[in-house]
Amino acid sequence: MASSVEGPQIPISVDFSGGLEMLFSNQRRHSLSIAANDKDGNPSTIAFLIDHLCKNLMKDPRSELFVLDGHIRPGILVLINDADWELEGEEEYELKAGDNVLFVSTLHGG
Amino acid sequence: MEAPGATEGLGEGGAGGGGEAGADFGACRDEEFERYSRQMIVPGVGREGQLRLIYSRILIIGAGGLGCPAAQYVAGAGVGTIGIVDGDVVEMSNLHRQVGHATSRLGMKKVDSLISHLRDINPLPAYVPYTFPVTPENAADIISGYDLVMDCTDNPTTRYLISDVCVLLCKPLVSAASVQKSGQLIVLNCPPTPQGRVDGKYAPCYRCCFKKPPPPSSMVSCGEAGIMGPVVGLMGVAQAGEAIKILISSLHLPQPSPPPSFPPLADQNLIQPTLLIYTYDLSSAIGPYSFRPLKMSPRKKTCFACGENSPSTLTLEGIKSGTPNYEQFCALPVPKHTLPSEERISARVFHDMREKGEIGRHVLIDTREKEHFSFGSIEGAVNVPFGRLLMRAAEVKRDGGDESGMLPGVVDGDAPIFVVCRRGLDSQEAVEKLKELGVDKGGRRRIMDIAGGMNAWKEEVDPSFPFV
């Protein structure tokens, strides 16, 4: 899926797990191209990606199950290349070609 | 009870009945050798590792889908003292996954049922039953008697409580969770480090990894979403594996202070522990990402429970007296929607009016998932799962179109529409959505919610209805 922003694109993969895939056509892995830079010319970050996913990839209208107040909702872990995003700068992390971003919903059942 | 000759033997192990005198010791020792020999000869276990297990105490909180398989292996391995906490009784719908219970023990306290099963596997350990739920008042008293805690519970409120107490009492926590087709596993607070220490890299607690619970509206339980037995079973077995490993390696003991500047490799993996996620795919024979290890962050300086200022925010006394308020933190679900009474009809009234022909031609929409619908439905109901209905509504809103795009196949002029769901929340939202899109034709067409959903239908109309 191409981003609406003109200019160079970077290929990344985005995964959903723990039930979040339900919001994204029940598909656990999505390969996408996103703009290398945002509209101000800054490198695209995770925050940019989250916005992009809400606008372009999410088919289910229940966006509050993914984003609350402009940020990823509590109870969802974000992993950049399989490491907790807190190790990588969270929303500020600048995406690189080939990155994998995983969104996992925390489970509580047993 | 003194263990004569404990230096030569395995120890009085299990200490089982407690009343057995030294005279039985020899026999017990032989049995232990025989019983545990296959794991003792595994490199890294040996006699010393087995002795550590025998002298260890594990607390398993939750005797359900995780706790049953976990307890089987913990008991089989010969952990000397095994405490089990759970206030529930065995129900029929538990048995497909809670393998420590049995049809012959329906209605029995889960803790008693599981212990009877474990004694059959291995009579040597001392089993300690706690046939009530863990609470802020009793958590510290129970946990303080053990070396390691396994969180096999099913709700966030208890998960945060258990982790907090484990931090304060310096106990490692092996935590797992599972719903529907997914599972998660992580070892926390191991090796345990006193609360508030942030002068180096230390293992995180549950709150470091999962700072805030998800909003109640997004949480689903096994009772609602369902659960595959092997998925939760796998997580429970993996928990037992981690617990046994920690005890054999003595990683449950608090580390010396100050910490060595280069912790051993094994410890590094615990300081930035792996969150293992498991996804089971019913629609593909071999899922490409079934198991996935994720690297988590170490202890957080800002953590409420274990961080720099945590001694001022979290104490055992505080927890006992109600601070923090776990129920509030994990706010229990509150009904989101309440339609005005003229847009709602009780299951009983709907049924009676329909029987008498007072409703006439109408459309009945059932918004439950198709698996729930497949168990049974009200005669004439059309299944439009809630998620699909919302998605259609969004499409119609975006691309235009009329109600035929909204509810294909169930359009019937101005005939009133009734909406029913499982418990009566989704159906109210569905009614609002339909009106928002003009399906009510400016009020000409009635759209009503059947209050309380199929749950109410079962209670008020048809007690034999197979409600899940």
Automatic annotation (TrEMBL), chain A:
GO CC field = cytosol
Q: In which pathway does it act?
A: tRNA modification; 5-methoxycarbonylmethyl-2-thiouridine-tRNA biosynthesis
User: Which InterPro entries is this protein grouped with?
Assistant: Beta-grasp_dom_sf, Mopterin_synth/thiamin_S_b, Urm1
Cellular localization per UniProt: Cytoplasm
For the modification 1-thioglycine, which residues carry it? 110
> What is known about its processing and modification?
C-terminal thiocarboxylation occurs in 2 steps, it is first acyl-adenylated (-COAMP) via the hesA/moeB/thiF part of UBA4, then thiocarboxylated (-COSH) via the rhodanese domain of UBA4.
Which positions hold the covalent cross-link Glycyl lysine isopeptide (Gly-Lys) (interchain with K-? in acceptor proteins)? 110
Print the keywords alphabetically. Answer: Cytoplasm, Isopeptide bond, tRNA processing, Ubl conjugation pathway
Major subcellular site: cytoplasm
Task: Read off the Pfam families from this record.
Answer: Urm1
BP-aspect Gene Ontology terms = protein urmylation; tRNA thio-modification; tRNA wobble uridine modification
Top-level lineage group? Eukaryota
Tell me the function of this protein: Acts as a sulfur carrier required for 2-thiolation of mcm(5)S(2)U at tRNA wobble positions of cytosolic tRNA(Lys), tRNA(Glu) and tRNA(Gln). Serves as sulfur donor in tRNA 2-thiolation reaction by being thiocarboxylated (-COSH) at its C-terminus by the MOCS3 homolog UBA4. The sulfur is then transferred to tRNA to form 2-thiolation of mcm(5)S(2)U. Prior mcm(5) tRNA modification by the elongator complex is required for 2-thiolation. Also acts as a ubiquitin-like protein (UBL) that is covalently conjugated via an isopeptide bond to lysine residues of target proteins such as AHP1.
Q: Which family does it belong to?
A: Belongs to the URM1 family.
What protein am I looking at? Ubiquitin-related modifier 1
Give the originating organism: Immersiella caudata
Write the gene name: URM1
Automatic annotation (TrEMBL), chain B:
The family database entries (InterPro entries) matched by this protein are listed as: MOCS3/Uba4, Rhodanese-like_dom, Rhodanese-like_dom_sf, ThiF/MoeB/HesA, ThiF_NAD_FAD-bd, Ubiquitin-activating_enz
Got a GO cellular component term for this one? cytosol
Domain Rhodanese span(s) in chain numbering:
358-466
Alphabetically, which GO biological process terms does the record hold?
Mo-molybdopterin cofactor biosynthetic process; protein urmylation; tRNA wobble position uridine thiolation
Binding-site list for ATP: 65, 86, 93-97, 110, 154-155
Q: Give the enzyme's EC designation.
A: 2.7.7.80, 2.8.1.11
Q: Which cofactor does it need?
A: Zn(2+)
- Where does it reside? Cytoplasm, Cytosol
Give the Gene Ontology MF terms in alphabetical order.
ATP binding; metal ion binding; molybdopterin-synthase adenylyltransferase activity; molybdopterin-synthase sulfurtransferase activity; thiosulfate-cyanide sulfurtransferase activity; URM1 activating enzyme activity
Q: How is the cofactor bound?
A: Binds 1 zinc ion per subunit.
Pathway named in the protein's UniProt entry: tRNA modification; 5-methoxycarbonylmethyl-2-thiouridine-tRNA biosynthesis; Cofactor biosynthesis; molybdopterin biosynthesis
Q: What does the function comment of this entry state?
A: Plays a central role in 2-thiolation of mcm(5)S(2)U at tRNA wobble positions of cytosolic tRNA(Lys), tRNA(Glu) and tRNA(Gln). Also essential during biosynthesis of the molybdenum cofactor. Acts by mediating the C-terminal thiocarboxylation of sulfur carriers urm1 and mocs2a. Its N-terminus first activates urm1 and mocs2a as acyl-adenylates (-COAMP), then the persulfide sulfur on the catalytic cysteine is transferred to urm1 and mocs2a to form thiocarboxylation (-COSH) of their C-terminus. Plays a central role in 2-thiolation of mcm(5)S(2)U at tRNA wobble positions of cytosolic tRNA(Lys), tRNA(Glu) and tRNA(Gln). Also essential during biosynthesis of the molybdenum cofactor. Acts by mediating the C-terminal thiocarboxylation of sulfur carriers urm1 and MOCS2A. Its N-terminus first activates urm1 and MOCS2A as acyl-adenylates (-COAMP), then the persulfide sulfur on the catalytic cysteine is transferred to urm1 and MOCS2A to form thiocarboxylation (-COSH) of their C-terminus.
**Which PANTHER family does the UniProt record give?**
ADENYLYLTRANSFERASE AND SULFURTRANSFERASE MOCS3, UBIQUITIN-ACTIVATING ENZYME E1
Task: Check the record and name the HAMAP family matching this protein.
Answer: MOCS3_Uba4
Task: Name the chain's protein.
Answer: Adenylyltransferase and sulfurtransferase uba4
Gene giving rise to this polypeptide: uba4
